[in-house]
Design a protein that fits this description.
Pathway: Carbohydrate degradation; pentose phosphate pathway; D-ribulose 5-phosphate from D-glucose 6-phosphate (oxidative stage): step 2/3. It comes from Algoriphagus lacus. Residues 8-216 form the Glucosamine/galactosamine-6-phosphate isomerase domain. Keywords: Hydrolase. With 231 residues, the chain is of the alpha/beta class. The chain has one domain (2-172, 181-203, 221-229): 3-Layer(aba) Sandwich (Rossmann fold). It is built from seven helices and ten strands. Helix 1 (9-31) crosses helix 2 (42-51) and helix 2 (42-51) packs parallel to helix 3. It is globular and about 50 Å long.
Length: 231
């Protein structure tokens, strides 16, 4: 797994945006579209702000969510709410094809199946071009949380957590779908990620993040997160 250590969280966001912009150009030129799933977080939203300034064929980009809290529409805890706030007033708001997780559905299990079907239909082969992931200080990624049965799901691409995490049940992409992605991009910032970054690099199976495929993965980390790796 390739690791790029950058000076600051802002530089992580900037370099990640440029990396994604290049992938969009490459994939649109090659096959006519690009599929991306993003997680939430301060650095990813900064990445999206920078990316929104790029002159790209946004109408050919299909954006999915990695995970979402089961919460009412417009709730500030929801990743979708933060995404819309981030892209408000940019060309992405009207040109980007966004597929929200339907977490306000009456039947959430059916909503998971529906979301998986959307991904299959848009990608045409069930493989997202890029999945962006973050890493929690407890080793979770997406909403694949330590000790939750969702981590053992092997027959579905989208599933629900079995227990609330930080007060909310979640809908999440699962390992089968994540590990099929053409590329996986990790963004890690902050000194509190230092230990978990080392475990991730060691593919530590004791944390959910360590079970994500490393073959097609790239990490952008800031110096505080990677302080133990800097000589």
């Amino acid at each position: 797994m390739e690791l790029k250590i950058l000076q600051s969280a802002d530089e992580v966001a900037r370099q990640a945006a440029l990396f994604i912009a290049d992938l969009i150009k490459e994939n649109v030129a090659k096959k006519g579209f690009f599929t991306l799933a993003i997680s939430g977080g301060r650095t990813p939203w900064e990445m999206i702000k920078i990316l929104a300034q790029e002159n790209l064929p946004w109408e050919k980009v299909y954006l999915f969510q990695v995970d979402e809290r089961i919460a009412p529409e417009g709730n500030p805890e929801r990743n979708l709410t933060q995404l819309f706030t981030t892209i408000q007033g940019t060309r992405l708001m009207t040109r980007l094809n966004i597929f929200p997780m339907r977490v306000i559905a009456e039947n959430l299990e059916e909503a998971c199946e529906e979301y998986a079907s959307h991904i299959q239909e848009v990608t045409r082969n069930g493989k997202l071009d890029l999945i962006h992931l973050g890493l929690g200080s407890d080793g979770h990624t997406a909403s694949l949380v330590p000790g939750d049965a969702v981590c053992e799901v092997a027959d579905r691409d989208v599933a629900l957590t079995t227990s609330p995490y930080q007060g909310r049940q979640r809908m999440t992409l699962t390992y089968p779908l994540i590990n099929r992605a053409e590329k996986i991009l990790w963004l890690l910032t902050g000194e509190e990620k230092t230990e978990m970054l080392q475990r991730l690099l060691n593919a530590g199976q004791e944390i959910p993040a360590g079970r994500v495929s490393q073959n097609q993965a790239l990490i952008f980390a800031d110096e505080p997160a990677a302080k133990n790796l800097i000589q």
